[in-house]
Amino acid sequence: MSSQQIKSQRENAVIYHGEELCRQKFYELLDNFSLPRGVLPVDMVEFGYNQSTGFIWLKQENKKVHKFPLINKTAYYDTEVTAFIEKGRLRSITGVKGKEFCAWFRLGNMHIKDPSSGKIEVAIIGGLGTTYPISAFELQDDKDDDQKKRNQDDKKKRNGDDKNINEDDKDEDQKNRSENDEDDCQKIRNKDDKDDGQKNRN
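Structure tokens predicted for DUF538 family protein (202 residues):
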């Protein structure tokens, strides 16, 4: 079934070969459709995308079993994986099975209905499904980049707070210096007045 679909969609599709190029183009497509990059962790040798229909396919040399450690779930990927891609969604998936209670079930759809919820809905053929954290399907490198960005933002915020504190300290020092200068001037004026008074008495 997958091979027949691929054959019928090839004519108007953009096709890439080679693991590195396929991965790069597939990740770019997932980014454009607001899907996590680890949603289909396949070792690709061919990747195709028919923009007019939204049909995508991924070919790998060997079947693959992958475990998602964050949710403790295992998935099976055939040598050919296909789906239709939409904003935040992969539908009519073929070549992917999820393991539940020691049995394998074909995955049908993966859908992020509300990105702000941080959840992705995974449905198997037959209508059953559940939701998982989107982060479970993100690549470790992406998680590290996100954490690095958060750390940088926190550092900038702390530096901003420190700068404000330093500015306050500078303002306080300037104020104290101004007050001291004013006191010195007053002392000089008082001394001058005293000297003038002494001269007048003489």
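The mean pLDDT is 84.
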